[in-house]
Amino acid sequence: MKPPAGAQKGMALVDALIASAVLGIGLAGTTQLALKTFQSATDNRQHTVAHLLAQEAMDCWQAQGKSCPVQDDILIHGIRYQRKMLSTPRPDGLVIDLQVSVTWAGAGELPQPSGTRAGVGQGHILWHSSASAIPLWLGVSSP
Predict the structure, then answer these.
(1) Which of 27, 100, 115, 125 could staple 57 via S-S, CB 3.0–4.6 A?
(2) What is the pLDDT at residue 130?
């Protein structure tokens, strides 16, 4: 027995609307996942650049000593990084403590005023090391 012809009218439209809603929810989830992935990749790149800048500052200080800049601003890929170096001799005078700080504002965000702590959307790394205050060549005699 066949159902009456009027009972099936509009069912294709309802099916299409439900399928469109399911597809829309799936696309929204995929879009959110892609945006989070891009943001994570950007954050990782900025953090890697900051680590390289801190390493460069440590290497400069260990190779050249006090002739390295104590503070500098560097613009890389549209992001401004602020690097500060601090060397503090210990009381015995034999060891110098080194500290390198690199701060940066995330992409599309305003940098914080100097002297403030890292806020939301701002990256900050801090490296510590120590070096002997006695030059390596001291006490070495030539043959």
Answers:
(1) 100
(2) 86
* Cα 125 to the center of its chain, rounded Å: 9
How far apart are alpha carbons 52 and 83 in whole angstroms? 11
With cut-offs at 50, 70 and 90, classify the pLDDT of residue 105.
confident
Residue 138 falls within a domain, yes or no? no
The values of phi and psi at residue 75, to 5°, are -110, 115
Whole-prediction pTM: 0.68
The tally of domains found in the chain comes to 1
pLDDT band for position 48 (cuts 50, 70, 90) = very high
How many Cβ atoms are within 10 Å of 124's Cβ, its own excluded? Answer: 14
Q: By the 8 A CB rule, do 100 and 62 touch?
A: no
Cα separations (Å) of 67 from 3, 58, 62, 77, 129?
A: 92, 12, 10, 27, 18
CATH for 88 = 3.30.1300
Q: Looking at this protein, which amino acid is placed at residue 23?
A: L
Residues whose CB falls within 8 Å of the CB of residue 91, separated by 6 or more in sequence, listed in order: none
